[in-house]
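Chapter summary example: a protein plus pyridoxal-5'-phosphate.
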Amino acid sequence: MRRFTVRAHLPVRLSALGKLSTNLRWSWHPPTQDLFARIDPRLWAELRHDPVRMLGEVAPGRLDELAADAGFVAELDRLEADLDEYLDRPRWYQNQQAAGADLATGIAYFSMEFGVTEVLPNYSGGLGILAGDHLKAASDLGVPLIGVGLLYRSGYFRQSLTADGWQAEHYPALDPQGLPLRLLTGAGGAPVLLHVAMPGGRVLRARVWVARVGRVPLLLLDSDIAENDPELRGVTDRLYGGDQDHRIKQEILAGIGGVRAVRAYTRSEGLADPEVFHMNEGHAGFLGVERIRELVTGAGLEFDEALAAVRASTVFTTHTPVPAGIDRFPVDLVRHYFGASGGDESALMPGLRVDRIVELGREADPSVFNMAHMGLRLGQRANGVSKLHGIVSREMFNGLWPGFDAAEVPIGSVTNGVHAPTWAAREWMDLARRTVGPELVEEGRGWEQLTGIPSAELWATRTVLRGQLVDEVRRRVRASWLERGATDAELGWTADVFDPDVLTVGFARRVPTYKRLTLMLRDPERLRALLLDPKRPVQLVVAGKSHPADDGGKALIQQVVRFADAHDVRHRIVFLPDYDMSMARFLYWGCDVWLNNPLRPLEACGTSGMKSALNGGLNLSIRDGWWDEMFDGENGWAIPTADGVTDEARRDDLEANALYELLEQSVLPKFYDRDADGVPVRWVEMVRHTLQSLGPKVLASRMVRDYVVDWYAPAGRAGRAAVADAYAGARQVARFRARVEAAWPAVQVVQVDSSGLPDTPVIGADLSLRAYVHLGGLDPEEVTVQAVLGRVGPDDDLTDVVTVPMSHAGAEELGQVYVVDTQLPRSGAVGYTVRVLPHHELLAADAEPGLVAMPAR
Ligand SMILES: *Cc1c(COP(=O)(O)O)cnc(C)c1O
């Protein structure tokens, strides 16, 4: 059957409803949601708060009635004006620029998934939600960002349970016509159709849908069109479905098609091309290859010159702390899609040699193409997503910078954040607007001032939100049982599931093994006792989807469901199927405690706990990801980790035991210890401290400002320097890299002399070093020579090092002379050495080329 959606014809007086429903800003703007609800409250609830569907299905007579309703029309006009003001007013970004900050003129942000709202279900989990929050915060701050991704015919799957608790998957098809999207059109109003060459002379075509996320456009490529053959139509069928071959086609479309979509969009809107390209994870890495091709064929650059220009303006964010989490393809598959039949020029990327493309994703195993390695080779700036993940990433990718310590690997970190207007309950947002003012709230600032709110009001808000969650839990438990085959008559008990006054713990996330969904079940009797304690019970809400191909994950879900199905505990523990944004919201609002027990350090950041914290939920978590840097001893609890224990079962035992103990000895007593007015004073103090200490740090606006200032602005400047004067900078860098690579085998530290040290030196004692260096034909300005001092180990390796630049002091027979006067940085066994690195002002770090020369041992 062919299905399509017919949009309603709005009365002229109500035409602004079209604009309000298609700009997704409504999804984080409660007054606009209220207006839609007013149209038809029953239908609004039934359609799960989807304005576009609502306008399609509401009775035309009702619209005519509203057009004549002066109160409704006045509110509509007010909200339209409010949206216009939101879209036009200069914001933080424009104010920074007005104050002289040299910021990028535009940023293209690529991601394979975007979770903006549940009515556009184009995400599977954390990565997509993060991308959605990034766009929203960028919009609030006025950052000139363009989002780029794919539109999947059926998004991610919807989850239900079978009678025996096994996960079942459904893939409801989406009709783009029924979504808040418009087609990108070109000259003459015809839809833009992108072309990407496929092997065997085939062509993959895609149209481009544009979603408006406040001020930010989101371009979504769609291959499901009649112009494609059936196989290619299916490229954008599902998110994370299919085999490697399917997957590489999706990534080719997202990366290469994505750049072409950006060009078509900016042309059609008369905008400048973005200066910076940001890869949110390596999936869209082929965007860099397309940009190299543009420069090679359009500007006549050599591959290496184009690479230098692309690198300068590319930011790469990695999200996984484990090699197994990285996207890798067989090299042969890459050659199949990029290669030509015969010659060595790429058919997909005319003007480029296939070998050069393959080289970008090289790893130790020559048969594998590694998308993260490509990200690092194409992006001069790279980051992990929490401080701990930065450390883990530097270790994980150390191999790309041989000769450098992990600490020197040029990968930084930006800790993720969450969009407050999306995730904080309306009750908190209203309180925040009253307490700190609407403007600051819009930009995600001033959150810490919530600390002034009286305890009784804080507690009352928490209680209201817990009550809403309890209602939602009852509704969903009932619906789930009906789906599992129960009848109404058996389900009377679901009306009493959960208790609005009982401590409510939430655990919801995807179900890969490392997140340990079932850790809480490690000692089932101990959990049962906690749930059923007559005076101080706990209630536990659990949710999460397992990847469809992961039967192990499904077995974990089944284990939880079976436990929760037992008659004696089913009023205190529930598994809610189909975790998505619409459910998540209730969980973050209403849970008193947010539980997270991953295997450290496998959680790159995690964001659900941040959303809970924004609502005054207290985190009870392993010190992993964001919690490792933001736990301060009083804003929640850290579950002690048995980091060194290699026996996994034993580690689980230890950590589960620690979890139960924390609940029994600290969490529960604090929650149930009430004053004369029934307020848990010590609990509320922790809530207050959480809002104050975490509020400002967990916000996506903080994250986006970090990206703007520390990543996009430098990448914009580096990109500009590379392309200025007919790409003089890019040519210089390419020449420089070729020169140093050729010269490097001859670069040598031939001798190091020290003087000034007494026989028994003390810490801080003066040390003069003089090094003789052969530069293999390089100029002294083309290198940095450094003294490296640190603790010396049994194998003569240096740790805890301090590096001190040395000055060039002429040339002698032995070589170029470098000197420095410094002090001994520490006591104990100290050693020093001297090393040489290439240096160029257009590189972001001297470690970037991965070349270093030290004295021969
Ligand atoms: C926030 C969120 C996630 C990510 O949570 P993690 O803590 O990173 O696991 C996943 N799904 C939904 C629906 C979310 O809202």
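Key point: Residues 125-126, 129, 509, 579-581, 584, 606-608, 611 surround pyridoxal-5'-phosphate (CB under 6 Å).
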